[in-house]
């Protein structure tokens, strides 16, 4: 509880645009009893489980879980694992964690076993802001008894590792009320001289500037950068570095410029093909539904000329689709 209270505290500093909000006239006992009946129904009544859990806030789901255990004599998470399967099960179990616990578990999962899921690792580290990363580190340690830094260091190498570790150290400046034009100019010139201007790339300089400066400052730096370089920052990244490092820097720049648009584009890319990349879709929908999914929806519609709701309806199916549409919270 201590963790979730602290988590709420830091998060309250940021305006939130959730699609999933606490339901009014909340009765956890009633919800728990309905879920109990739904799970015990022959063939499982998934619809009821979806209706309840996707339309309650995390704090409310926790109360439901407490009541469920009282009446069913087993943990709700265990019951859900037994009753559901596939992508629906993954999504529902994700909802039983707080946003920060979910992010921490997804990070752990991206580094588990033989291969590293670099794409997930990049998304989770490079798109989360300083406050979120500080919370994730604390909760990661609490959940897994290990340091996130150590796990990342053990799982990645080279400049890619250096960048992720610099971000996870959360040394980013707080936004200042004073615009420092000289520092903006210095940073823009340093980025140019470390990359496009010279043969090879001085990646360390890029990492330092992108992991330590405040976001408003960096937005101005990238603008100023154009007066030094014939290419903008994203084009420069594509020219200078490749692979995971390129993807990481691009993710950072996209999130500094418009984080919700970054998530909207990730969702769009994940649902381009006939069958969706369900892992990506689930991760973004679950991790952002109580944070900024409303704004992601707006950006999605603005950028792709169709709603996130319609896109989900076209590229997913069954109960999994119903759960996603419910988290999405409406058509635009």
UniProtKB/TrEMBL annotation:
<dbReference type="GO" id="GO:0005634">
    <property type="term" value="C:nucleus"/>
</dbReference>
<keyword id="KW-0106">Calcium</keyword>
<dbReference type="GO" id="GO:0005544">
    <property type="term" value="F:calcium-dependent phospholipid binding"/>
</dbReference>
<dbReference type="Pfam" id="PF00191">
    <property type="entry name" value="Annexin"/>
</dbReference>
<keyword id="KW-0111">Calcium/phospholipid-binding</keyword>
<dbReference type="GO" id="GO:0005509">
    <property type="term" value="F:calcium ion binding"/>
</dbReference>
<protein>
    <recommendedName>
        <fullName>Annexin</fullName>
    </recommendedName>
</protein>
<keyword id="KW-0041">Annexin</keyword>
<dbReference type="GO" id="GO:0001786">
    <property type="term" value="F:phosphatidylserine binding"/>
</dbReference>
<dbReference type="GO" id="GO:0005737">
    <property type="term" value="C:cytoplasm"/>
</dbReference>
<dbReference type="InterPro" id="IPR018502">
    <property type="entry name" value="Annexin_repeat"/>
</dbReference>
<dbReference type="GO" id="GO:0012506">
    <property type="term" value="C:vesicle membrane"/>
</dbReference>
<comment type="similarity">
    <text>Belongs to the annexin family.</text>
</comment>
<dbReference type="GO" id="GO:0005886">
    <property type="term" value="C:plasma membrane"/>
</dbReference>
<dbReference type="InterPro" id="IPR018252">
    <property type="entry name" value="Annexin_repeat_CS"/>
</dbReference>
<dbReference type="InterPro" id="IPR037104">
    <property type="entry name" value="Annexin_sf"/>
</dbReference>
<keyword id="KW-0677">Repeat</keyword>
<dbReference type="InterPro" id="IPR001464">
    <property type="entry name" value="Annexin"/>
</dbReference>
């Amino acid at each position: 509880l201590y963790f979730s209270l602290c988590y709420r505290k830091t998060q309250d500093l940021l305006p939130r645009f959730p699609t999933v909000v606490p339901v009014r006239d909340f009765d956890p006992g009633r919800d728990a009893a309905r879920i109990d009946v739904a799970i015990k129904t022959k063939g499982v009544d998934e619809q009821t489980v979806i209706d309840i859990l996707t339309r309650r806030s995390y704090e409310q789901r926790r109360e439901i879980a407490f009541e469920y255990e009282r009446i069913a004599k087993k943990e709700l998470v265990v019951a859900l694992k037994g009753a559901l399967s596939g992508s629906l099960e993954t999504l529902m179990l994700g909802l039983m964690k707080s946003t920060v616990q979910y992010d921490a578990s997804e990070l752990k999962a991206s580094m588990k076993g033989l291969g590293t899921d670099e794409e997930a690792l990049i998304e989770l580290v490079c798109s989360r802001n300083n406050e979120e990363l500080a919370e994730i580190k604390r909760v990661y340690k609490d959940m897994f008894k290990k340091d996130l830094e150590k796990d990342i260091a053990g799982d990645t190498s080279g400049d890619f590792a250096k960048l992720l570790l610099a971000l996870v150290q959360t040394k980013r400046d707080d936004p200042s009320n004073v615009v420092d034009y000289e520092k903006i100019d210095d940073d823009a010139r340093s980025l140019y001289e470390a990359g496009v201007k010279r043969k090879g790339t001085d990646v360390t300089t890029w990492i330092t500037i992108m992991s330590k400066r405040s976001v408003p400052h960096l937005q101005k730096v990238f603008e100023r950068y154009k007066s030094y370089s014939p290419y903008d920052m994203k084009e420069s990244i594509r020219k200078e570095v490749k692979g995971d490092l390129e993807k990481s820097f691009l993710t950072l720049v996209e999130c500094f410029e418009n984080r919700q648009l970054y998530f909207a584009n990730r969702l769009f890319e994940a649902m381009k093909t006939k069958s969706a990349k369900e892992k990506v879709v689930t991760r973004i929908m679950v991790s952002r539904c109580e944070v900024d999914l409303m704004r992601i929806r707006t950006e999605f519609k603005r950028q792709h000329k169709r709603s996130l709701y319609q896109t989900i309806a076209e590229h997913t199916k069954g109960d999994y689709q119903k759960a996603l549409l419910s988290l999405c919270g409406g058509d635009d």
